[in-house]
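Example 421.
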Amino acid sequence: MNIGIIGSGGREHALCLKLKQSNFINKIYCLPGNAGTALIAENIEIDIDNFDEIKKKCTEKNINLLVIGPEKQLVNGIKDFFKETDIKVFGPSKIASQLEGSKIFTKKLCKKFKIPTSKFEIFETQDTALKYLDKSNYPIVIKADGLASGKGVYICKTKNDSKKAVIEIFNGKFGKAKSVLVEEFLKGEEMSYFIICDGIKYKSFQTAQDHKRVGEGDTGPNTGGMGAYSPSRLNNKILEEKIKKKIIEPTLQGLKELNTEYLGFLYVGLMIVKNEPYLIEYNVRMGDPECQTILPLLKTDFGQIVISCCNRDLNSQKIEWLDKKSLCIVLCSNGYPDNYKKNIILENISNLEIQKGQYVIHAGTKYINNNFYAFGGRVLNIVVTSDSFKKSKKEALEILNKINWKDGFYRKDIGYKVTEL
Ligand code: AMP
Ligand code: GLY
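Predicted structure in complex with adenosine monophosphate:
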């Protein structure tokens, strides 16, 4: 079986590394991939929003299965596009992708199936939203409905901030807005719970906690993710049962009632309040950098898992994990998440010596004339698995010290809640 991976970030390099180890995959193509994937697979420069072009390439290269990394192509219906072809797609349908594509879709599903989530109101006009904010309690959360690349969520401490957010959203900051979501602020600790699903059965696919803010101590603007660790310190059997029974199973049932099903990874973003899970968001894909953090812990052949999922036979798979602690630190370009330079040389990568359990996973990089260049905001993911989070973090920092990239920065406190244990 030949496989194509759609995407070019750290998540996609991690998927590629794991599929490379599979006994069930012949050749891997990355569309378009990055410098890391170029070293172990064949990159294909292509516009991944053009599904016709992807289809042509699949025919030309005899690609039988596509693994979709990012949400955008899923929300735009790549699964449905390939439905009548021989090419299998590991990822959910357009309707099921609304779980990430529309926060309001998810909230309505929560209401219908009594899935625990923060209390909310949906407003279709600016005026009604502003009036509601006059009598609300603070902090409060304001959200734009559609995909907003991790932006579009405002945690507002004051009435003024919340009104500004509503006005920005209705003024089209995240595209034409038909409505706005106003949510109760939940105070707790976040945890991400992952499942893999074949349309019939689902299995757990680890937990993680990420750090979204750019600054140490979780301060400053939101980013795609500055680092993560897995497993989450919050997970336990009782909590896991609640997540499955109160959140995941009613969601999958809800999708069935909409005449669709879920195939692929589902990322369940939760707020844990006194060992009770509340759904904050769904993502219809693996997290980034959670994917880089989790996959090195997987013992089972990942290619076999993906293929069995596409054959609706996940039940036959036993998914096994290493009993290790994984921690990932993201090396970013100076200026990220705002403006940063592109096309900067990355020295000290080619000759970098790393040990077993250590991984340098590429994100926004290109490989040109035997040199590595940074092109993205998030550039490299340094991942270490070991017997303790403290050790994993120490080793990750040592690697970053060796790389010593003057044009970049990283958070030195990733996993601070677990590394001091
Ligand atoms: P979202 O894109 O919906 O995941 O929101 C981004 C981030 O905003 C989440 O990871 C949380 O840190 C925070 N957040 C979103 N909704 C809430 C809420 N209702 N209460 C507290 N924090 C929230
Ligand atoms: N790390 C957060 C995300 O992938 O959405």
